[in-house]
Amino acid sequence: MLRGMRKASSNWLGKTIMAVVMGVLIVSFGVWGIADIFKGFGQSTVAKVGGTEISLNEFRQTYTDRLQQISRQFGRPLTPDQARAFGLDRQVLQQTIAEAALDEEARRLRLGQSDDQIRQFIMNDPNFKGVGGNFDANRFQAVIRNFGYTEQRYVADQRKVSLRRQITGTIGAGLEPPKAMIDVLTRFQNEQRAIEFVRLDAAQAGQIDAPSPEALAAYFEDHKLQFRAPEFRKIAFVVISPEEIGKWTAVSDDDAKTLFDQRKDRLGTPEKRQIHQIVFPNAADAQAARERLTGGLSFEDLAKERGLSASDVDLGLVTKSSLDPAVGDAAFALPAGEISQPIQGRLGTAIVKVDKIEPGVEANYASLAGDIKREIATERARIKVAELRDKMEDERGGGASVIDASQKLGLTAVTVDAVDRSGRAPNGQPVGNIPQGLDVVSQAFNSDVGVDNDSISFRGGYVWYDVLAITPSRDRNLDEVRDQVEARWRQDQIAAKLKTKATEMVQKLEPGGKLADEAAAISAKVETATGFKRDDSPAGVPSTVVAAAFRTAKGGVGQTPVSGGSEVIVFRVTDIIDPAADAASDAVKKLKDSLDRALTEEQVASYVNKLETDIGTTINQAAFAQVTGANQ
């Protein structure tokens, strides 16, 4: 994009346009009922919430991160225009302002979070656990780097998130949805219907004679846009991603075994022991108790004497690392059934008994080799991708085309001779050499020949593309598409006849006619569907019919087209079942949980809106538009 801006401003016309664009000032703006106040704004501030200024760079980073996250979810990049059409720009701004308001409130309330708590939160995050199920520092670095974070920035963000949760958790605590609301929604969700129905298809439409040349020509003229040849583009692209570059089969056993040996202790299953423990204030009491235990007194009876319950002394099946180090060393050196000597631990003098030993399982290289090699290959590929990305950007910055740059770097560029907006070739078939999930086609149709395009994020890597040629859309003549026109004309004729016949059937059924009689008259059969809910998909019943059935009273009849009108279904609602709500059922519990979340979100939103109003919120529209591309 920066290269494109430099190119655009390299001549006198481009410089004039850039000067005009950068000189435009927008003087009014309103969003979510918050009026903008531009006094005191610097050019680098997007918004101000109380004493917190949201800088242009900070908002740009947040907005870019969110854009990339959603692009990964969609499997294709989102353009600035599409993001604004979805309202993503306003959503991110609203969220950023809300977070700043909560941060202000956290400071006012003097809330805090220790480094140890943040560390534990991060280390317990399943996204950062490696092959053995433990926290993996390398994986942590790779994951946050993939989302554009440094470690320092990620830790700082998590600290803020934790403080915000302290506030929002308190605001939403104790909310309960009204019982009447649960009852109404449960009945709505669980209401069931039964229908009988008849399908009308081409067989019931009757004979459709071929159209006359004049009729076909007239139909073609009326629907000419439907048969217009689409615009085609010739494109070239190259993919640089870990998947393309990192081949786990190329990782040697020596490298994989080295990493395996480093993690061997974490990859295996540690030994576990069922342990009873009683802690005494001093060694003398512990020694006296041990003599009684070896003399036949049980741990349970000794515990009762000391006012302890069974759960107080039974530690369960535990690993050595979960115990006090001194206690762990002694307990894991004992045979099963043995009682230890007094052990001086951190909390006092303990006596332990080992009831059961569950041996550990040593990690096996053969069973883990594939996973370890894939991890090594992926990490190597990330490094290689970064190196190739920089080299590719250098080549592109020097004016090289995608094809030329690829050849120089030893990469394989893909050329698509002709593709339309839907990803189809001129023969109507999908283009086969574009990777699944890569939306290079829509990007190409938003570009032009000779444009230096930004790269696209794809599967942890990047894609560069060029538009090589454009074949404009054009009107076809009837001879080119005669078969398609005649097929479409025939479909329309069938749809019109079926609609007329279905309407006649409904008119006969409404006064009390029998569906079986009407079906027999047109050689159709009556089908039934029972006990289906609003969100169900009964076998053989289209969703449009289910929706129509729930808009119709018991005994009522209706019709609905399916398959683009090539089939029409006439139905009668034969029964409506309104089951009683079971408060103990899983469905009602899930509904209650959903309502709890909705009520909490609503309560928190109201609280945050009040915060924003009380502490004062202002927005710099010009800076906001600059980040989101609204001023381009």
Describe what you observe in this structure.
By secondary structure, the protein is α+β, with helices and mostly antiparallel strands. It contains 25 helices and 17 strands. The strands form five sheets. Strands 14-5-16-15 form a four-stranded antiparallel beta sheet. Strand 15 and strand 16 form a beta hairpin. Helix 3 crosses helix 5. The longest helix is centred in the middle third of the chain and has 33 residues. The two termini are 12 Å apart.
Number of strands: 17
Low-confidence stretches: 1-41
State the strand order across the main sheet: 14-5-16-15
Give the N-terminus to C-terminus distance in angstroms. 12 Å
SS-derived structural category:
alpha+beta
Overall body shape: extended
What kind of sheet is the major sheet? 4 strands, antiparallel
Structure summarized in a few sentences:
This protein is of the alpha+beta class. The protein is 49% helix and 17% strand.
